Amino acid sequence: MIAVDVGGTFTDVVALRDGKIRTAKVSTDYTDVTRPVLEGAALLGVAGASVFNHASTHGLNAVITRDVPKIGFLATEGHRDILDMGRVWRPAEAILDPGWRRSFGDAARPLVPRYLRRGIRERLTATGDVLFELDEAQARAELEVLRGCGVTGVAICLINAYVNPAHELRLRDLVREVLGDVPCSLSSEVSPLAKEYARASTTVVDALMKLIYADYTARLEKGLAELGFTGQLNFADCAATLVPSHRAMEQPFRIVFSGPAAGTVASAHFGSLIGERHLLCADVGGTSCDISVVTGGEPFVDTTFELEHDLVVNALANDVSAIGAGGGSLVTIGQTGEIQVGPGSAGSTPGPACYGRGGAQPTTTDTCLLIGILDPGTFADGELTLDPELARQAFENLDSEFSLAQRVRYAYEMAVHNIAEGVFNVAIKNGVDPRDYTLIAYGAAGPMLLPAAMDAVHCKQVVVPPNPGLFSALGLLSADQVFTVNRSAYTVLTPDAAERIDGLFAEMEEQLRERLTPDVAVTFERSYDGHLVGQSWDTPFVPVPAGTLDEPAVAAMIASFHDTYQERSGNRFETVPVEGVTFRVRAVLDTPKVEYPELPARAADEPLQPVRTATLRYLGEGAEDQEAPVYDRTALRAGDEFDGPAIVHEGLSTTHVGAGQHLVVGRYGELVIRKK
Q1: What is the pTM of this model?
Q2: In whole angstroms, what is the distance from residue 74 CA to residue 180 CA?
Q3: Is 281 helix (H, G, I), strand (E, B) or coil?
Q4: What's the rounded mean pLDDT across residues 658-669?
């Protein structure tokens, strides 16, 4: 099995063969994103692999940078500006800013400019009845405008089409007559859910992803075939569940944000192995820190997520919060002379100053190199030699009155503080007590910075899993293959609604069975999103009983709603009727998962020995230099333990154990760090 995670700085590739995990890390190439994927696959060998699981930020980066194809948008007449209006929400930091504008609106960088958004004369009622028939002559005229503008795809979102798709289906026929065989996304197929704006934005993203990923997928499949790969290519979706590539291309909006979610799944899987089911997960890479929560062994999943503020996608997604803090975070001087770290990043080009690739500004990597945490000769498995003198020059060139020692120390403390604040805020947002949670430190820079954040986060311990630099990619070998169907149908849960709800679930399950290979082992999971009658916002993922839904089953659905509502809000209102809004079925296939080999215990005649001693500087105001033993992680054995300050080095990551901390090696080679 092989998995690849295409990140903003590096492309991580892992292979599981004969019970052994092999890894490769290649710099991401934005000019040809498939190149590092195929290069990593060639290094590990894909011939004979049964699966190739893929996660990428390729589509996300295209949306953020607005490097997107030209598409048209068809809406019910009078609603062409729905994309520009959004939900009329402001972020908290912009509530009092009169000059604030949405990043995706016509005043800034629209995904679809207004002249490509066309109104179509038609109207359906909320019950799906036809109020105004589709004006086909007017629709053809609007499509001729789009043809003259050279659009390469079309997104269609008509009012109430999620109840009755007839007008959207006919419009697709007209698109093919006028524009030819261009990709066309219908909201009734992409996201047949209530709430018009979220349905519209999801449909637009789907149309864009069809165009962006079509060529990418074709080149990837061709390149893998040339390397001898004959297995199944899977794409990970936003919840890090796997979908065969040809199925993923049917609704590619689901894969737009797949990379960060994989680390959460990897953490949940590994946490179950070591008996830790409550986790704070922090993936610190070169550009950002992605933070998520696992409670009771399960990631927190949302029914929607945002690519940018108020740019909504209706897809099940692991709740991941990103902050601009990583190894490449730039160290700068603020307006009042203070040291700042991030959110800007040096990226992979030119990279930190110590890379010697032309970077002139210091970064967190330069900071840790000058402190002595990083070894200049063994960084990135020895493939890159760091230059401490270039790092020193970058810090000295800062326009600051601080001494060099103060600049480096403050930069380190700010980097740690930014990450600790981000992790703590996510814990509070999810209503969990971090003292009951284990902090999983992964990403190339996570083990280097997160142990120092332990006191500020107030977690019970920090765990560094095996292969932390490629842990998110390992998550793709820990994921299930899942197919999901959901549909909105406003239904007050009463005994006489049982037949309608049962028919809806039976129809969705039959739709899923048509996608699956006959006789495949599959588990169907039902749930619904509902609210108390009169509420605007839904409580998601309320469990639904299996089998035929009769009156007792509807009563069980109502009881489950009140239990879920109380768990999420702390309140219970059993006298208020419950209304189901969105009904959902997930088909979960039994999928092989990565197994971590157990580490042997140390033999009596094999004492634990450091490979060298490092001198750590600048850690504390006026503090003396610290002598820290450096251990090779491959030489550690289960049960080994030692006190900090100490450093554990491995090919693609470095763990810093601070003074006053104690490290114990677990049964799978995990590094467990606690306060002494």
Answers
A1: 0.85
A2: 16
A3: strand
A4: 96
